[in-house]
């Protein structure tokens, strides 16, 4: 029987995004011609086929759920089980439809989430929301309408979703909450997604939107361009960090530098998938260990054949390991991070072919935790939020350590009962996790200080 990570990597190779087919009309995944069922034949046969299909999906969902592990300390654990089961079911149906050639798996998931699991509420009083384009990059701008003495602060927000999923709509409530609670103009960036677009397109889009906003902040939005921060969640936080480092390397002086970076459970490196948090939380929803490797590879080139090698660390050149070991050592983590157990993994066997396939992933713009000291030294004050039951916990804590060693201004918030993706369905009705309010209030309290 395959381990959870081996199962995910092998299923990704078999069923992952290997071709990007246009999504038919939503109903065409079930109906042909709008009224005629795809399944033809005697009336008794169709129900039998539907029943068999449902049993297959239920069996696969049950099998996937058995690979998950939700510790007792996780907040809202029952709801997390339910939501995880829902998304596993959506992914499995999408996978089946993809294999049948009916519609692409990822586009099916995006369509289903957008139509059934994302609620766009009426704009509340005190807020003005506009969909615009900044140099051809779609953005949504949230402007408080309350009277302000002088210029407002700004925040450019980058959504997560593994560079594959997520959208402006998926973080609409998050951005509304920040804008209204902090009296801040928030710009949400609708960057292009993988697998249609690969690195560095996503980061380029975020840079384009950021620079455009900085250039027009005062004239068009009454925002002080020297008080504009950048932030995001998960892979969005990855790009917020990489963007600050990219701008720090250039130092062209034409535009102000971001005043802060706001990082919510950031993904910051793909050199080591065997850190304590990856071991302890490898099967905790919503983000499994193998899935994080899958997302990095989709961002880079979509070559899933190297997934298991990346998880084992066979992609890291021998000459780079001493430097990475200094930055990623467990000795840099607080002792409590080892309390739930940790074992040193076997020494990986370097494979040059694997490195050649993923070498861009070890560059700082994909793994900003691996940037040189002189670059990190130039980054702005930082807010980092980590969750105990998250494979990415140690990425955030290790980055905090690097910043503190360089005497940078760091605010760290750790959610002891938190898990990855807590804010994903903030204020989304029955999908919302009550514990996510604490995460949002931590972000709000920090933004108010800028």
UniProtKB/TrEMBL annotation:
InterPro entries noted in UniProt: AB_hydrolase_3 (IPR013094), AB_hydrolase_fold (IPR029058), Arylacetamide_deacetylase (IPR017157), GDXG_lipolytic_enzyme (IPR050300)
Entry's Gene Ontology molecular function annotations: carboxylic ester hydrolase activity
GO cellular component terms attached to this protein's record: membrane
Entry keyword set: Hydrolase, Membrane, Transmembrane, Transmembrane helix
Highest taxon of the lineage: Eukaryota
Span of domain Alpha/beta hydrolase fold-3: 155-302, 363-423
Transmembrane annotation, as ranges: 44-62, 83-102
Catalytic residues as annotated in Swiss-Prot or TrEMBL: 234, 390, 420
Chain coiled-coil ranges: none
SUPFAM superfamilies named among the record's database cross-references: alpha/beta-Hydrolases
Family per similarity comment: Belongs to the 'GDXG' lipolytic enzyme family.
Protein name in UniProt: Arylacetamide deacetylase-like 4
